[in-house]
Multidrug resistance protein, MATE family (Paragonimus westermani), 130 residues
Amino acid sequence: MWNSCFPLGLCYEFKQLIELALPITVTSLFTFTFGPVSIAFCGHLGKTELATIGLSMAVFNIAGIIVVTGLLTACDTIFAQTYGSKTRNKLSMQMKKALALITLCCIPCCALYISVEGLLLLLGQNPMVA
């Protein structure tokens, strides 16, 4: 019955779409629920702990996730163009360079993570939260 309504292979296309999208959807779901679940658990501990986890997640997202996501988003375009041009060896070289660049960009992020307590105290943050 379904094939008679949609003779152009809609079922096959839908199955292919689900096979491609399901792993990405599940990964995104787990990635985005990490923050709210952590905040909910820390919220049961107390106000100071809730403030601490909120501040730490904000610093982590701003100084880490946004930097890496921005770089990887730019790399997606370059990788797609190279893959489309059928030059596999060039794609491999670009991926190695991107990995090296992202690793180098993570060094300042790690330095910020190490010194964030001192920076927050200089900005007047409560020592219990910093």
Remarks:
- The chain has two domains: 8-44, 47-130.
- Residues 47-130 form one domain.
- DSSP finds four helices and no strands in the chain.
- The radius of gyration is 22 Å.
